[in-house]
Amino acid sequence: xxxxINIPEIPNIxxxxxxxxxxxxVIEIVLTSRKQMASYTFKDAAASIxxxxxxxxxxxxxxxxxxxxxxxxxxxxxxxxIPFTWWAWLLVFFADDFCYYxxxxxxxxxxxxxxxxxxxxxxxxxxxSTALRQTWSGSFTSFIFWVPMALLGFHxxxxxxxxxxxxxxxxxxxxxxxxxxxKWFEAVFNTPSHHRVHHATNPQYLDRNHAGILIxxxxxxxxxxxxxxxxxxxxxxxxxxxxxxxxxFTEWYLMFKDAISSKTTLVNKLKYFYKPPGWKHxxxxxVSSDLRKQWKDHQ
Length: 299
Prior knowledge:
single chain; mainly alpha; 56% helix
């Protein structure tokens, strides 16, 4: 297949990073135990690691599907042809991070995408193993947020490579060992402090700090919240299981159950798939914006 450009061999950096993940996990466990921090429990960490391994294996199938879809869009509909040059990698960095912000934000505001993303938020602990708690279903749908990059002319291999770089960056920010970094870094980049907010269930922290690498998008689009109050991790309504299969599919089951069993119109039934998590057709539900407003009214 001649694409008219030279395509370099790009390794799967996530697979090469697995030894790094293991070493840093051990280091964090040692350091947190010395500081008497209750960051780790065996069952929680085991569940997170199991979810991560499942994501890697399922990802082999999902990656083939995603690569095929992005390649089709690139070959058939692209507006430009962007070469593999240094400035193209700079462009793909910003383009990917922008797409990731909107994917991540919508994954919190749309229940269909939340059904996959909730997996990553299901731990009540916050440590490096939490970073490995990844979805088993999301890869089959989330790629649509990166389709515009293929249409613009970024080669699918370049897109997938930058997506892996972003995922690798986000690994190290899942820790309580690092408090605040220099102000200039906190102002531009996603950090452990910013991401602790994202994983918290405190009302003022809900659906905030969706950044991948750059925190600037949250500041531009009004979803930034600094870490002030100590975060309480997990979900507004926790799944309370260490079973990887239940973690992966509980929200899917609940979403379809709500849609099918609710005694309401077909239109309202469909809304259970795209309204925010917590929405109920009879107005009895509380979504994140309601909880934040309730919190503000009590201040």
